[in-house]
Write a structure and sequence with these properties.
With 260 residues, the chain is an alpha/beta fold. The chain has two domains: 195 residues, 2-enoyl-CoA Hydratase, Chain A, domain 1 (Alpha-Beta Complex), CATH 3.90.226.10; 45 residues. Helix content is 44%, strand content 15%. α2 links the parallel β3 and β4.
Length: 260
């Protein structure tokens, strides 16, 4: 499928989504919203894609909704609902995808761009990365998954600080509070590519089940979680990746996982 506002490619098991409206700070209009939803569904359901990688063209990661679409009154309701619908489907697909997601953030990730920036299983922040809640500046509440992700990543009190103080957070502090996995002061592109390739070469089904278990853990009683863990790890004995990993264990060989 051809896209106007994003790039969507596949190579060597890595499915890449790149925000591509650099002249508009990669802000989200109706077209991008729809294209993000379509691309995420496409990559999440493709068994040949074993890792999804999200990044952006230009000096800005994503500043959320394109405010030039809005009039500043109640007539904007339908527009906001439309943009939010596609953005929310995009974030949901990435969070629930049965494969790891890695994001590389450089420049500003604000408003509706914050959720996509931090929704990855691995989040890398470049030297110029700046994370901003931004919604209070125009009288809005959070969306794009930000109010779901922030408390789970940094805890409720810090999430409240981010939302109500609305102060920019640089890469180093983002790493310190757990908002991102790693601050990368230089060589972000190379680090991003290496991480995506590593994840794409890993035990995809094992990653998928670990991702699912982690996602449900905060809402699941301990005994139920333990039961799910036991059933899941037993089920994974039937995978080709387990057979390969077991055969290589204790040797100098590195298992060549196939995702099967």
């Amino acid at each position: 499928m051809t896209y106007e506002t994003i790039e969507c490619t596949r190579e060597d098991g890595v499915g890449r989504v790149v925000f591509d409206r650099p002249d508009a700070h990669n802000s989200i209009n109706r077209t991008m919203s729809e294209e993000l939803s379509s691309a995420a569904q496409e990559l999440a359901s493709d068994d040949a894609v074993r890792c999804i990688a999200l990044s952006a063209n230009g000096p800005t990661f994503n500043t959320g909704a394109d405010l030039t679409m809005l009039s500043g009154d109640g007539s904007d309701e339908a527009t906001i609902r439309g943009v939010a619908s596609g953005l929310h489907e995009f974030v949901s697909q990435l969070v629930h995808a049965p494969k790891p997601v890695v994001t590389a953030v450089d420049g500003v990730a604000a408003g509706g761009g914050l959720g996509p920036a931090i929704c990855g299983d691995i989040v890398l922040a470049g030297e110029s990365a700046r994370f901003e809640f931004a919604y209070p500046r125009i009288g809005f509440s959070g969306d794009g998954g930000s109010t779901y992700l922030l408390p789970r990543l940094v805890g409720t009190r810090t999430a409240q600080e981010i939302a109500f103080r609305d102060e920019p957070i640089g890469a180093e502090r983002a790493e310190a509070i757990g908002l991102v996995t790693e601050a990368v002061p230089e060589g972000l592109d190379e680090r991003f590519d290496a991480e995506a390739e590593r994840l794409a070469a890993g035990p995809t089904k094992g990653y998928a089940e670990t991702k699912r278990l982690l996602a449900k853990s905060l809402d699941t009683p301990l005994d139920a979680q333990l039961a799910d863990e036991g059933a899941t790890i037993a089920r994974l004995t039937k995978t080709e990746d387990f057979a390969r990993g077991h055969a290589a264990f204790g040797t100098d060989e590195t298992p060549e996982f196939t995702g099967e």
